[in-house]
Design goal:
With 191 residues, the chain is an alpha+beta fold. The protein is 47% helix and 12% strand. The chain is built from 8 helices and 4 strands, in the order αααααβαβββαα. Strands 1, 2, 3 and 4 form a 4-stranded antiparallel beta sheet that branches. The longest helix is centred in the middle third of the chain and has 23 residues. The radius of gyration is 21 Å and the shape is globular. The protein starts with a helix and ends in a 17-residue tail after the last helix.
Amino acid sequence: MPYLFFVDILLPLCKEHDVFDVRKSSRTPIEFKIMIALRTLGRGLVADDCSEMSEVGQSTCNAIVKTFVLQFAKKLGPLFVRKPTEQQLRNITALYGHLGFHGCVGSTDTTHVRWDRCPNMLRHDYIGKENYPCLRYLLVVDHRLYIYHCSDGYAGGNNDKKISRLDEFIQAMLEGMYSDLEYFLYDEDGT
């Protein structure tokens, strides 16, 4: 991660949204906590590695990473992943309509996140076409790559169709979440 992104964006966001709950007393500065969490997540390190580098105990490193992931998702997730407003929805459908996809409200696909430390008893369910254990997340984005939905993690052995059948956002759309959205369809002769 570029240092300026860390200093100018991530650190202020974590402070503003109190990701580490500063009311609790801690001798570890928030900058260290974020760095421990990012290094652990980004490099696949274990608490022992971070503990040796930072002189912060292993159990503290584990707690920092867990807090960062859970609180970041809870407090900052809604800033980046949210349903489109009415105006955004009109803009999205207008552009997709211009491209020939009338009535389209977004693009959807699943992404695979490798799970290197998958427990052995779960490996079979989590190995997909990539031949390694992974979690799959279904995303709905628009043409500008704004994320409107990110599902919970599914076992990597599931295919896109099954995940779509299980996902609450896709099911809500099928049940009429955007049924009041008006758009024009062309028939075979282009009228």
